[in-house]
Amino acid sequence: MDLGLEGRWALVCGASKGLGLACARALVREGVHVVVTARGDAVLQASAAALRALDPAVEVRAVAGDITTPEGRAAALAAAPQIDILVNNAGGPPTGDFRDWSRDDWIRAVDANMLTPIELIKATVDAMAARGFGRVVNITSGAVKAPIDALGLSNGARSGLTGFIAGLARSPKLAAANVTINNLLPGAFDTDRLRVTLAGAAQKSGLDLAQVTEARRQQSPARRFGDPEEFGALCAYLCSERAGFVTGQNILIDGGAYPGTF
Fold first, then answer.
1. Dist CA 203 CA 141 (whole Å)
2. Which DSSP state fits 56?
3. Of the candidates 92, 158, 244, 246, which lies 20 to 30 Å from 169 by C-alpha distance?
4. Nearest-angstrom CA–CA distance, 262 and 257
5. How does DSSP assign 208-261, residue by residue?
6. What is the C-alpha to C-alpha distance for residues 30 and 41, in angstroms, rounded to an integer?
7. Other Cβ atoms within 10 Å of 130 Cβ, number
8. How many CA within 13 A on the CB side of residue 17?
9. Which residues pair with 183 in a beta bridge?
10. pLDDT digits (tens, 9 = 90+) for 189-201
């Protein structure tokens, strides 16, 4: 399927590894020029080089910085002549017990996982509407649909973003101008973040890491973790011309782990 994206420009956040990088790879394969951003410059530059190797005709610009700061956002946005596609992605806040979290912990979580995406959307969607094309994909979490007790900071911040998007995406000023905004809700994917989480669970429980990993894998009806390439492919579809009638949706990609009907 031709996704009709060749020559577009995308900003992909948190793109040095994991699901963000998978989204960038999928877009580059469709002929999209990308600006990739993340905090760690060395890893980001290596990932950008790998992206360039996929298609020498595609321009890949790497901007190291903290996207949760005004300076980081300004630098990333300035790196492209225009932003046709925005993929919002930021690492989730730490796990824990809400009794131990301070106001500052909550502010950091909300700033990274709610306010930063909103600021980037604010900076890009009106120009998208003026050009008659725009795609925003927010990478949130399956925990938005099925909250996890230890992920309270993430549950709260990402759910706030989800509620905001539900209204904004249905604005005729955007939807009628071919600007769509959707949320992708990943379950357990084979990423560094999952491996760190599993290692922490193993250490806390005193169990062998292999045992903890296999038990987590068996919780999925698919009996496996997701491949980041699968996630990237779905992201690319939502960014495509073919997905112009899909907006305001929360799309789970979790191997069937969510047990509900809706």
1. 24
2. T
3. 92
4. 13
5. -HHHHHHHHHHTSTTSSPBPHHHHHHHHHHHTSGGGTT--S-EEEESTT-----
6. 25
7. 11
8. 13
9. 138, 250
10. 999 888 988 888 8
Q: Which residues contact 125 (CB under 8 A, 6 or more apart)?
A: 134, 136, 174, 179, 181
Instruction: Estimate to the nearest angstrom the gap between the alpha carbon of 53 and the chain centroid.
Output: 23
- Cross-strand partners of 36: 12, 62
Q: What is the number of other CB atoms lying within 10 angstroms of the CB of residue 210?
A: 10
* Both structure tokens of 222: 């698919």
**Sign of the alpha-carbon torsion through 252, 194, 155, 126:** negative
**Residue found under tokens 């949706």:** 249
Contact in structure between 88 and 140 (CB atoms under 8 Å): no
Q: What is the pTM of this model?
A: 0.95
Q: How many residues does the chain have?
A: 262
CA 237, 241, 246 angle in degrees (round to 5)? 65
- pLDDT for res 243: 98
